From TrEMBL:
Protein name in UniProt: ATP-binding cassette domain-containing protein
UniProt record, GO biological process: L-amino acid transport
Domain of life: Bacteria
Organism (species): Herbidospora galbida
All residue ranges annotated as the ABC transporter domain in the record: 5-208
PROSITE patterns found in the cross-reference section: ABC_TRANSPORTER_2
MF (Gene Ontology): ATP binding; ATP hydrolysis activity; branched-chain amino acid transmembrane transporter activity
Record key words, sorted: Amino-acid transport, ATP-binding, Nucleotide-binding, Transport
Length: 210
C-alpha cells in the first residue's frame, strides 16, 4: 500500500542544536503510530516539522507521494495533514460548536461533520453552546481533536493527546493517526521510541501484524 506520510532522514533543530536527527517513519492509511519519548526527546519538534510549523534542516517529508518538505503549513493542512498541538489553542471566547466550525474552514470536504464529531465525543454535544474557556482539560482536548477532524484530514498528528481510546475509532474509519506520548499508548500498532531526537527502535505490535 502507498504511504500517506513518509518521513525520511529528517533532522531539525534550534540554531546549531539538533532536536531531531535522521528520523525515518512511514505511515499508511488507517495506521495508528505512536512516537514515544521522555521530556525534551524531540516529539513536538518532529510533529511541528512534519506539518511545516518548524523548518526541516535535512531529509524529506512526502505526503501522498508528493514531496512537501518545503511547502507552507497552510498548503499541507488544506490537503489533509493536520496537527493537534500540545497546547490545543481553542478560541476560548467562542463556544464549542463555533470552535468546531472554525476547523472546517481550512479543510477539505469529507465525512467529518458536527454530528459525527458529537457521535465520537457525546459530552461535547451537551456542551456545544458552552464557551471553550469553561471546558475541563479533557473536554478541551476532545474539542481540539474534533476541530482538527472537521478539516477532514487524511492524517492526524496529535501532540500529547489525553483521550487515546477515541483514536482507535478514527483509524477504523481509515484515518491515519500519529500520537506523540510519554508512555506507550494501548491502542498503537507501530511504536517509535525517540531518545534525544533519534528513533532508537520501531516496533509493530504482534496483534497488528498482517
Ligand atoms: N523554541 C526552542 N528553542 C530552543 N530549543 C528548543 C525549543 N523548543 C524545544 N527546544 C529543545 O529541543 C529539544 C526537543 O524539544 P521538544 O519540545 O521537541 O521535546 P518533547 O519530546 O516534545 O518534550 P515534552 O515531552 O516535554 O513536550 C529539547 O532539548 C528542547 O529543550
Amino acid at each position: 500500500m502507498n504511504a500517506v506520510l513518509e518521513v525520511t532522514a529528517l533532522s531539525a533543530g534550534y540554531g546549531a542544536a539538533r532536536a531531531i536527527r535522521a528520523v525515518t517513519i512511514r505511515v499508511e492509511q488507517g495506521e495508528h503510530h505512536a512516537i514515544v519519548g521522555g521530556p525534551g526527546s524531540g516529539k513536538s519538534t518532529l510533529l511541528r516539522t512534519v506539518v511545516g510549523l518548524h523548518p526541516a534542516a535535512n531529509g524529506t517529508i512526502r505526503f501522498n507521494d508528493t514531496d512537501i518538505t518545503r511547502e507552507r503549513p497552510e498548503w499541507r493542512k488544506a490537503r489533509g495533514l493536520c496537527l493537534m498541538p500540545q497546547n490545543h489553542r481553542l478560541f476560548t471566547s467562542l463556544t464549542v460548536e463555533e470552535n468546531l466550525l472554525v476547523g472546517a474552514r481550512w479543510g477539505a470536504p469529507g465525512p467529518w461533520t458536527l454530528s459525527r464529531v458529537y457521535e465520537l465525543y457525546p459530552y461535547l454535544l451537551e456542551k456545544r453552546r458552552a464557551l471553550a474557556a469553561s471546558l475541563t482539560l479533557s473536554e478541551h482536548q476532545a474539542a481540539a481533536v474534533g476541530r482538527a477532524l472537521m478539516a477532514n484530514p487524511r492524517i492526524l498528528l496529535l501532540d500529547a493527546p489525553a483521550d487515546l481510546a477515541a483514536l482507535g475509532r478514527l483509524t477504523k474509519e481509515g484515518l491515519a493517526v500519529v500520537a506523540a506520548t510519554r508512555e506507550v499508548p494501548a491502542g498503537a500498532c507501530h511504536v517509535h521510541r525517540l531518545i534525544d531526537g533519534t528513533v532508537t527502535t520501531t516496533r509493530t505490535e504482534v496483534r497488528c501484524r498482517r
